[in-house]
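[job 0412] stage=fold_complex status=start
inputs:
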Amino acid sequence: MSNSYHMPVLPKPDAKKVTINVDGRDVEVPEGTNLVEALKSIGIATPHFCYHPDLPVAGNCRQCMVETDGPRGMGLAIACYTPVRAGMKVATDLSSEKVKTARKAVMEFQLANHPLDCPICDKAGECSLQDNYMSAGGHTSRMREDIGKLYKGAPEHRHLDAKGQERGGKHLDLGPNVVLDQERCILCDRCVRFMRDVAGSEQLYIAGRGDHAFLSTFPGSELDHEYDLNVTDVCPVGALTGKHFRFRQRVWNLVSTPSIDPTDSLGANITVDHHEGQAWRIMPRRNPEVNRSWIHNETRLAYRKLSENRLAAGLFGKSEVPLPQAASRLGELVRGARKLALVASGHLTLEDNAAILALAQFLGSRAEVFGGSWLAAGKPDNIARSGDPVPNRLGLKLLGIADNLDELTRRAKEFDVLVVAGHDLWKIAPSRAKALEAIPERIVLSSWHDDSVSKATLSVGVRAWAEVRGTMVNCQGRVQMLQAAPILPSPDLEPVWQILSSAGRLGWTSELDAFRFAQGRIPALAGLTYRTIGPMGRILEGVVA
Amino acid sequence: MATLTVTQNFGKGASDLSVYRSLGGYSSLGPRLFDLSQFELIDLVTRSGLRGRGGAGFPTGMKWSFVPRGSGKPVYLVVNADEGEPGTFKDHVLMLEDPHRLIEGMIICGWALGVRSAYIYVRGEFLPAIETLNRALKQAYDAGLLGENIQGTGYSLDIYVHRGAGAYICGEETALINSLEGYKGQPRLKPPFPAVSGAWASPTCVNNVETLMALPWILENGPAAYQALGTPKSGGTKVFSVSGDVKRPGVYEVPMGTPLMELLEGKDLCQGIVGELKGVIPGGSSSPVLTAEEARKANLDYEALAALKTMLGSGAVIAFNTTRDVVGMLASLTRFYAHESCGQCTPCREGTGYADRILKGVVARKGRDGDLEHMLDLAANFSNTTICPLASADAWPIENFIGKFRPEFEKAVAANPGHAAPRLDDDFRPGAFW
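[job 0412] stage=fold_complex status=done
writing structure:
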């Protein structure tokens, strides 16, 4: 709304602690943060709508009010814009009747013009309005039927603007990805701030004023940005919904499995939300050091590929065989190879690549490992992408695998067996990959019916990124965990490391064995376990200057 | 005739530079001003007891002293001429009648704060005033009173007129600054206050038209003389715009502390009430209303009106007689605030509209028992919980009109034959669920 720009000060892990008095108890909280974060750090949740830790503070929803001491005694203040001061007194709804009343009143105002259409609203189940009503509202409606709501979704609100674009009304198409249900909007302006201050492309604004204000795109233009689906996450109510997920699933059915962005080397933290064996959406998982709360639209839509065109069996040439048969054939070919080329991939976890190295070690001089990618790295956008489409490129480098695919194509004739895992070489660079067809036995381990599978003599279906447990190292040198979501298209699918372990008789029984092998190759991983890596990942010391 | 400090040139054609000069105008732009240091000038204004005339009554000298020196950023002076409070029209007349006095006041303030660029933010509807100001500015520039090196003193000041786009909320200083910068006119979170970080994130002083127009007189006659005109705590004179049921509505300047009834009945002033006085809104639509009885006790200064739990505000006195329908009056006020809420904070955005819809129902003979309590409860809930005081400005009239004229409101509710009927949906609305 203005040039005044106040990013919330968030608690840093090493922040100095100061003592404040909350509800009569002296507690230690990080210095300098706002009260929402400070109270959160001692386990008190403050209801709020407009506050978001990764957006400038707007202070307009007024839901987060607490009482603080000032020159005129205790008075109401919004927690999101009140910084912690040593020795300050704070009263929350736990001790202050005034705070309770004020929050309840704000809740009543929020709902004054909000429809009660939760049963058909996509946000129901993860809606701030529902949550905050339960914690801070709980009033019985006093709204009389003949006073009525200012119902912005009514058909009479639908109109064409000066440039012929449809405005007002229900399920308004804002652009290629996002739909707006005007009547549910509580005008917290989070989406406006996201587009302006994070995406850097002001495409939304709140037009009009008072209770007749409404969210809109600018006349003649639409909401179209590669990060625009994040507005559906920041929307605290069901006003902005993504076309990809709208009406697909009730959110309370979904189970979230934490994972990592498979499309970029920043490794944005995500969750894969699934229900009954199918992934329904990908949501950002907040990591202040990596992607904050944002993910790219391509990342968000990556879940679609998990159920499209999957290779859930083995292929001898073009003829389908059961997976176990394909896997044992792979083992025979690998063990019987005269000269084996193994292609490691930055699209696979450290564990999978460790298995490739272990297999090469087992075969000794008969096997050679190649790696790297033909995909070029682009520029970082400073939101949630580094521009490099190979998520584990750094991990590959740390394992000591050189970027030498071109050497492989040059020396293709030396080999009689090729094993390519998790890497669609023929799709990325068909002309360069053509040289590999000189190798008589081409084995491809892939999750999809991709171009490489069509060129392979033996294909083995493997688990995709969302279905494996493992680790990747992002471009910051941060090792991060992927967890396996139970969404396998076929129960026989195994991860790459397991197939290769069987092929090389490595005897690995879990990804931990593979991780231990990787630890042997990467000194910086020493001492880490899956537990200590944790959901936020761990920076590997000395990996990135 | 009382001493006039602001309106003495009314009706003399002072919008023309030569007339203004012949009346003694711009006489302060000499050693009287430029021999003073910034601190001496601010101290002089502080001693004069001048308080902001826009509504809040904040001491002007103190406001100026908050502007930081040597911050490395330019200091801006913004004149708040976005006069939009219902009943207020003094600034419009002041700018029409005596624009050069405003310019002179701005030069004085500019000198006190080291301002290089100043803006007059004029309400968009005030086209005649904007034209007058622009003509006056051109004359002043041509006469070397503005621009580079004013009268060879080395001090330079440029003044720009900015036309508002018609939002009441832009009278709030941070909303005004947003609007001036080209953003949507919505109040900003405070702190930082404009004195530290205002227009273009630079120190900014926002003053009302009338405040600045009092400066030439103060400089000419000294702070003590100005202070002596009013009461000890409210110095000087105040311009009132009187409307409603008085014989001669208009803009009047009286010393602070003048009894309200003298303003309404004085021979040189409004000359009496039409009909029988029922109540007075003393300081613009948002100030709590006074009953006739209270009005007879009221003196026009900040402290006396605060003692009556109302306020001097912008000096917009609206008197009404016994023939007026207070329910309809309040309904038009709530409609105004619901229309002018900027839509930023939830309680104000939703609350002002909600209260307005309830009162609309009462006016349309659809009121129900409990509506008044509901409105009062809403008003209590949306006041003092928002960024700016607009919601409170709606709550005060609601609380005071209903509180002081309750029987009439109850009569309006009772006009609905079914006023006691239970809520239609009471029996099928399970309280525990919805």
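[job 0412] summary: The first strand of chain B starts at residue 75 and ends at 81.
[job 0412] exit 0
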